[in-house]
Each structure stands twice: as structure tokens, then as C-alpha cells.
Design a protein that fits this description.
The structure holds 2 protein chains of 2 kinds. Helix content of chain A is 67%, strand content 1%. By secondary structure, chain A is mainly α. Chain A has one domain. Chain A has a two-stranded antiparallel ribbon. Chain B has 11 helices and 10 strands. The chains are: A mainly alpha, B alpha/beta.
Chain lengths: 324, 250
């Protein structure tokens, strides 16, 4: 029972982190039409920054990294969020220029590939392929059992999810969110109605990047290590698949998609008998993720829970404060 | 009084001069028709006025301000808006949302205002919604307020585009083939709507292949061929022009 409780608490943390990532991606893609195929890079910068600023100064022997410091974990999360936003701003400024969306997507995917190579190849940055490890756990001073700690951290992550859910939902329903959807549907027409689409695209990219950075920070403080193995470009496609399965443009759908794809589907093989050589199931999983995405696009592109239609309500003269 | 003055406009695509030294003036409430055979440069000229195409030469002055180098959204904020040859409704937004999005204008939809001035945002949301209902009533489209753009007929999509432009309270409205895709029995209704818009003092520039529409709607017509204006004047005068007949017949 204890093992199960530990396992479910761990899954809850992963679920929360993936929900944060999916909310960010849904804001970017589902509402604004920005195809961020480099999403994982922004989650990773958050993870790396959150790790190095709590690890203490780099010893240069066991592991090398930049920005070594010993800051409180709350500050580390804040810096992770800022790092995601700043990197998004820098990348967005040149990748989201007035070029076609498919080209933007291609540029972002290439950035993702380049980023992995740079981090692997330039060891002083974030300790190369080995990555950073030994990240101290937050809340370690609290008198909690191992299991209690797991659930406390899961609760901590879920608090961020609830707040992020409320914020992105509010923003998406605002006039700004409507402007994003207009840009998504018809960029030229949106501009011809006075919307500064370049600014809108950059804003949504930076907000999404900040959320991605936060999700990375929360994850690394839980698992205690981060290396390039954790953020291959394909990880971005898991979140995209979750979004398409659940429902693009619908945050409830996206949460459902996270539950179904990165949690239930990717955990399922643990409970199946081993087939073939070790590692075969992992490879099959990746193929299946691609297949699910394609099936979704063919059979139900709107996802399980489609984007909600916002019904107009005519206000009476009295409600508008006018004389009847 | 002149509202819009365009002088010696040049638009090039590679080595091709799609618009080659076109000038035109426009007064408030005036409607100008642009006609000519395919490839004459009419849509390119419209795009140059709206900002969708970069000018290679010439100047555009709106109400005394040079706007020829401004991006599309800034021209729209100054009062130039347009419809497109292929209808451009926001397909996954309702008709009402299409209108309200346009109505929020320059600053209403800005992130800063939405976050920092919530009270103002709520107020402007109410005001814009009220205006949207008025426009829907005027064009007898209130029944379709909750339909998605993608669920409309061709004629309704055209109307949504035009209503959306009106929500911006434009001074110049550029219409690129507004009757394409409109059912024949609705053409007369759309024409009446456009006349009433013109009568509100909004200047219209209309690119249209259906010459009877141009004849009905436009006081002045410019005929283009190979990027240049070859004739201008009233509809009857330009169609009688031998150069125009030659351009159309070949």
C-alpha cells in the first residue's frame, strides 16, 4: 500500500508538471496558433536554472555549471519562470517574425535540436550529457515521512496548476484572448482590424515560456537531476498529443489529455508483461504516441472536449444602465 | 475635402511592376470603383493602400498623415480597413465574437489593459457588445450571432467581414470583390447595405468584376491595365472609352 501511495503521489507530481506545460502550450497553440515545436527547451531552461541556483557554486570537478548559487527553492522557482520568459523573448524575437507559421514551427524545432547539442557539447554550461544532479529537495526541513513528503510536494505542484489554470482561463476569455483567437483564425484579417499580431504572438510566446520554465523548475526540484536525456525534442510531441487528444483550445480537455496520454498511456506498459527485448516497449510507446496524434487529427481533430462556443447574451436596456 | 491621397504608387513582385505609378484621391463618403482585366493590379493596389503589400514607391496620405510606410494594424487604427477576396471571417469564433474583437480597437485588447485596468476593460466590453448588437440589427444578422464563422453562407460571411470593418468605425473601407460567393438574390441587399455605409460618410474603394455592381455603387471608376490607370471618370464614360474596350477585349 505504501508503495502504491508513493507511486500515485509521484504520478500526481508528473501530472501537475505536464498540466502546467500543456496549459502553456494550449495558450500558445490552441488560442494563438503559435506552433511551438521547441517547447521542451523552455521547460528545460527552467529546470536547469532552478537546479544551478540551489546547488551552490560549481566545484568544477564533480559537475560544472553556470550561475551556481545557494538560493531558497522559492526564489529558484521564480528564476526558472523568469528564465523561461527571457529565453522565449529572445527566441521569439527572431523566430516569430512575419513568416509563415509552418516556417516558424520548423525554426523552433531546429532550435530545440540545436539547444540539445549545445548543452551536451559545452560542458561548462550545464555539465554536458551527464547533466546536473544532487539538487536539494525543498521542504526538507519539514518533519515529514517519505510518503508524507511525496504528497506534500504533489499538493504544492497542484496549487501551481490551479493558479495557472485560473490565470490562463481568465486571460483566454478576455479581449486579449479573443484577439489571440482572431490571429489564430485569420492573421491578415486580424491585422487589418487594428490588432498588432506580432506583439500578440510574442506576448503569448513569453507567457507560455514562463509557464514552461516554472514547470521545469517544479520537476527538477522533485526529481533532483536534469540532463539532455530528459528533454529530447520528442517530449514536446507528447504534450502536443495530449492537447490534441483532450481538445485544442479547451483547458479542461487539455487536462484530460494529460491524464490520458503522458500519465495513463505512458504508464500502462509498466503493468503489462515484458515483450521482446528490454526497451522494445519504450520504442513502441513513441510510435504509438505519433499514431495517436495522427488518428486524432483524422478522426476527431477537435479532441474529446472541443473548444467551447461562447454564446452571446443580449443585455437589456436596464442592465446597460440606460433608461428603459 | 480630400480624405485619402495616393500618389505614384508602385508595387513590385520580383521584376514585375504590378502597380506602376497609380495616383488617386478619395473624399469622405465617396465610392471609387477599380476595374480592369485579370492581372491589371487592382488587388495589389488595394493591398498597397491597406498595407498588406509593401510599397516600392509613392506616397499615401490619410487626413494629412503619411501612412505609406506604416504597418497594417496602424493604418487600421487610423481608419483604413478592408475585406479580402477570399472571405476572412474568424472561422472558430462566433459572429458576435467576430464583431466584438474588431470593436475593441487599438488598446481595448492589449494585455496591459486587460491585466491592469480590469474595470475599464469590463466597461469597454459592455460598450463594444452594445455596438455589436446595433450593427447586427442593422444588417439583420442578430439571429446568427452565435453561429461560428465557418457555419455561415458565402453572403453571410461577406456581411460579417463588412460588419466587422464597421465595428472599427473606419474612414476608408477597401472592398476586394465583395460580391464573390454571394448568392444572386442577396446581391441587391448587399448593395443596399454598401450604399448605406457610403451614405454614413465612409469612403469606399471597390475592386469588383461584376460591372453592374460598380455601376450601381461607384460615382467614380478607375480602369487599370498592366498596373497602370488607363481611364477614369463616371462608369458610363469609362466603358465608352476605346482604350478600356481594347483592354477588355484585347
Amino acid at each position: 500500500m505504501t508503495a502504491w501511495s508513493y507511486y500515485i503521489a509521484t504520478l500526481t507530481v508528473y501530472f501537475g508538471v505536464d498540466v502546467l506545460a500543456a496549459l502553456a502550450l494550449n495558450l500558445q497553440f490552441g488560442f494563438a496558433g503559435v506552433v511551438n515545436f521547441g517547447f521542451i527547451v523552455f521547460q528545460s531552461i527552467g529546470a536547469y536554472i532552478a537546479a544551478v541556483v540551489v546547488l551552490g557554486p560549481s566545484s568544477g570537478t564533480f559537475q560544472q555549471y553556470v550561475f551556481g548559487a545557494r538560493l531558497p527553492f522559492g526564489v529558484a522557482l521564480l528564476l526558472a519562470t523568469v528564465a523561461g520568459a527571457v529565453l522565449s523573448l529572445a527566441v521569439g524575437l527572431f523566430s516569430l517574425r512575419n513568416i509563415r507559421r509552418d516556417y516558424q514551427a520548423a525554426i523552433l524545432l531546429i532550435i530545440s535540436l540545436i539547444a540539445t547539442q549545445v548543452v551536451q557539447g559545452y560542458v561548462p554550461l550545464f555539465n554536458g550529457s551527464n547533466g546536473v544532479t544532487g539538487v536539494p529537495r525543498p521542504f526538507s526541513s519539514l518533519p515529514l515521512s517519505l510518503q508524507g513528503y511525496q504528497w506534500a510536494y504533489a499538493g504544492w505542484v497542484l496549487v501551481f496548476c490551479v493558479v495557472a489554470y485560473a490565470v490562463v482561463t481568465w486571460l483566454s476569455r478576455s479581449p486579449w484572448g479573443r484577439a489571440l483567437r482572431a490571429m489564430r483564425d485569420q492573421e491578415d484579417a486580424a491585422a487589418s482590424l487594428g490588432l498588432n499580431v506580432a506583439a500578440l504572438r510574442l506576448q503569448v510566446f513569453v507567457i507560455g515560456g514562463a509557464l514552461a520554465g516554472l514547470s521545469g523548475g517544479l520537476l527538477v526540484e522533485y526529481i533532483g537531476a536534469w540532463s539532455p536525456d530528459a528533454w529530447g525534442y520528442a517530449e514536446t510531441f507528447v504534450i502536443f498529443t495530449a492537447m490534441f487528444v483532450g481538445g485544442v483550445g479547451n483547458y479542461r480537455g487539455v487536462v484530460l489529455g494529460v491524464l490520458l496520454v503522458p500519465i495513463l498511456f505512458l504508464e500502462l506498459p509498466r503493468f503489462l508483461p515484458q515483450v521482446g527485448y528490454p526497451g522494445l516497449m519504450d520504442s513502441v510507446e513513441w510510435i504509438a504516441i505519433g499514431a495517436i496524434w495522427m488518428l486524432c487529427l483524422y478522426l476527431r481533430p477537435q479532441g474529446i472536449v472541443p473548444e467551447r462556443r461562447s454564446l452571446a447574451r443580449r443585455r437589456s436596456a436596464a442592465e446597460q444602465g440606460e433608461p428603459a | 475635402m480630400t480624405l485619402l491621397v495616393a500618389r505614384d504608387l508602385v508595387v513590385t513582385y520580383g521584376g514585375v511592376r504590378a502597380v506602376n505609378g497609380v495616383s488617386l484621391d478619395l473624399a469622405p463618403g465617396e465610392s471609387l470603383g477599380l476595374i480592369g482585366p485579370n492581372g491589371a493590379g487592382k488587388s495589389s493596389l488595394l493591398a498597397a493602400l491597406g498595407g498588406q503589400t509593401r510599397l516600392a514607391g509613392g506616397s499615401i496620405v490619410l487626413d494629412g498623415h503619411e501612412i505609406g510606410r506604416l504597418p497594417v494594424y496602424r493604418r487600421a487604427r487610423m481608419g483604413i480597413t478592408r475585406t479580402f477576396q477570399m472571405t476572412s471571417e474568424f472561422a472558430r469564433m462566433t459572429v458576435f465574437e467576430n464583431l466584438v474583437t474588431a470593436g475593441h480597437g487599438a488598446h481595448g485588447a492589449s494585455l496591459g489593459r486587460v491585466v491592469l485596468r480590469r474595470h475599464e476593460t469590463r466597461q469597454s466590453e459592455r460598450e463594444v457588445a452594445s455596438r455589436a448588437w446595433s450593427v447586427l440589427d442593422r444588417f439583420e444578422m442578430a439571429h446568427a450571432a452565435d453561429l461560428y464563422g465557418s457555419e455561415l453562407s458565402g453572403g453571410q460571411r461577406r456581411l460579417v467581414e463588412i460588419m466587422r470593418c464597421l465595428m472599427r468605425e473606419p474612414r476608408v473601407l477597401l472592398l476586394d470583390e465583395p460580391m464573390v460567393g454571394v448568392a444572386p438574390h442577396l446581391v441587391e441587399k448587399l448593395l443596399a447595405d454598401l450604399r448605406s455605409i457610403r451614405d454614413d460618410g465612409i469612403a469606399l474603394v471597390v475592386v469588383e468584376h461584376a460591372l453592374e455592381v460598380v455601376q450601381e455603387l461607384c460615382e467614380r471608376v478607375v480602369v487599370m491595365a498592366l498596373g497602370r490607370p488607363i481611364s477614369s471618370g463616371t462608369f458610363d464614360a469609362v466603358v465608352a472609352d476605346p482604350d478600356v474596350q481594347a483592354a477588355y477585349v484585347g
